[in-house]
Each structure stands twice: as C-alpha cells, then as structure tokens.
C-alpha cells in the first residue's frame, strides 16, 4: 500500500462522511479552467475535519496544499502529485453579532459582502466583486478600489503546523500589499472575524452596484482568468506598462493579454498552463527590457 492509499484509508476510518477525490482534474477547480489532475483532494466540512486531514497527512509525511475556490491559482498541465485541501463548499459558516461578522474560510467574498449589506454593515463593499474566498483573501490581503482585507480583519483563525487551532489578532496578521503572515502557506486559515461599521443599506447597495458596474466595464469578466495577473509595481500600474509595450492582445496558444484590460491574462479557449507561463514570461521580459520595471506574478502557481 502506497502512502496515499494509507492516508485515504486513515481518513475514511476517521471521517467516513468526508469527500475524498483521487486524480481530480484541477481545471474544474480554478477560475482559469486550467490544470491537470491532483493526486488527492480532500473537501472537509468543518474545522475538525480540516484539522484531522492536516494531522493525518503530516503523520504520513505529506504536506497539504490549501486552496479556496481557485480564483488566483494556475495549475500545471501535468497536475499536482500531492494532497489538496479545499475549503470552498464545506467551511462556509456565517454569523453576526453587532458590528462583528464571523466567517468560515470557504465563504465567497461576494456572499460575505452581501451578508454585511443584509445586516446594515459597511466596510466590505470593495470585496463584493472579488471572486475569491475568505481564506484566500486573508492569505493575500486581497483588495480592490481602495479597500483591503487588512482594513476590516480583526482576527484570523488558523491551524498551526503543530495541529492546534489558534487566533491571530490585529497586527500579528502581518498584512501588507498582497501579503500577510499566512502567505507562506504553512498555516491553514479556518476563518476570519471582521469588524465593520453601521451604515445605510441604500448607500451600501449603491456603492456595491457602482463598483460592479465599473468592473463589468473595465475587466474581461466574460473569459476565464485568475484576475490581475501581476502585482502593482511601486510607482507604476502593471496594465499601463504592458499596454505601453504594445502587448495588449498578445496571444500564445489559447492564452491572451486581454484587449479590454492589459493587466489580465485570459483563457480565450483551450489555453494550457504552458501557454499562460510562456505568455507571462514574454510580458515580463518585454516590460523589463523596455521600461526597466520588473513585474511580479500575483497569480499563485502549483505543480510548476
């Protein structure tokens, strides 16, 4: 019996109702619609199950990869010969007490923002159009239109490498631009606590609708992508640099620099991971050669 078969057996004995998938195509789990099979995917439904998966995996010498709904992930065409722990669809509890919302790591940001709206709480309008989950957003301090998770995140619940659950509070969360204390992936984010402010529902809804309209106008939402491909370089905008270098519309296979927004690499149909990697490498090389600015990938990669 190989190590993965032993792990599957151990997990099925401990959590008979938890879903485990072998050789799961990752193109089904990323917004890019790209990626070969994962050796094993676990979909826990609770913090207890998530902790159990991590503990069992590490007892078998396997380090799990944590993901939400794959909105910022590019997976190799050959897949990933490892364990993926996916929190989306399972760890999706929501509760509110006064101005504080508690959310599981698998909660979509759009759902979280709507939940805040329903309870007359402002501060999460920026998150409504971000396609990620709470866990992924906290890990990378996701943001848009002047808002960031660091502005509202009071506490992050994590599972430590030692297998204990603890709360990371305030400045200990280590937020900076598209980064946090959790970005190294060694701790599984179980959920977050968000402190908001009371607001007028009409004003909150109007702001969300305005941001949604701006996104539809400027972003290529009609094509699969992983959102903004590159981080914003200090003192510059990635999209402006890419456009300035004449790369808008540049295509490699099924991957293309969006003609609508040069900061997005999109899947025009049938794009492979290799297409995306070749295109982003060409973008980075060209921008550096012509402007002297180094672009850094915002999209995470797996199996590459």
Describe this protein's structure:
With 304 residues, this protein is an alpha+beta fold. Helix content is 28%, strand content 26%. The chain is built from seven helices and 19 strands. The protein has helices spanning 3-14, 47-59, 109-118, 134-140, 201-218, 238-244, 273-291; strands at 19-25, 37-43, 65-67, 73-75, 80-86, 94-97, 100-104, 121-122, 143-144, 147-148, 153-159, 165-169, 188-195, 197-198, 225-228, 251-252, 255-257, 264-267, 300-302. The strands form six sheets. A five-stranded antiparallel β-sheet has the order 6-7-13-11-12. A four-stranded mixed β-sheet has the order 1-2-5-3, covered by helices on one side. The chain is globular and about 55 Å long. The mean pLDDT is 95.
> Roughly how much helix do the residues carry, as a percent range?
25-40%
Sheet with the most strands, sense and barrel status: 5 strands, antiparallel
The tally of helices reads: 7
Terminal Cα separation, in Å?
27 Å
